[in-house]
Input
Amino acid sequence: MPAVSSRGRGRRTINEINMVPFIDVMLVLLIIFMVTAPMITPSMVDLPSVGKAAKQPDQVIQIVIQKDDSLEMVNDSKTQKINMDNLANTIRMVQTGQANSAVVISADRNVKYETVVKVMDTLQRAGIQRVGLSVQLAP
Output
């Protein structure tokens, strides 16, 4: 309800917004930010960069996810069909003797993202350290 002033002959309303409470709140927030800003320590995020790995892998195993969610393992230009249940055991058997090996996941464009994540999760739970995704750039 607008305030009413009774100066002079008639009564008229005051159509102005009181800015004092707004300014008070803004000044308090400014003081809070000025006090807390020096206390925040900046953190460094060390992101990996492409092609700057410390040591290139001795062996690269590629897992290809087909349109029908079937899995194929490509190793030394040999292709082998595998299923999700024995994926980790098959990778471990291929990795024996190769301490520095990497697994690359390639998927068809129409494959559900959920399937790719399940394969990644299975490999990481099996203790495989180097898991990557293959990316193809569109022409």
Residues 48 and 54 are 11 Å apart (CA to CA). Residues 3-39 form one domain. The beta strands are 3-5, 12-14, 59-65, 71-75, 78-82, 101-107, 131-133.
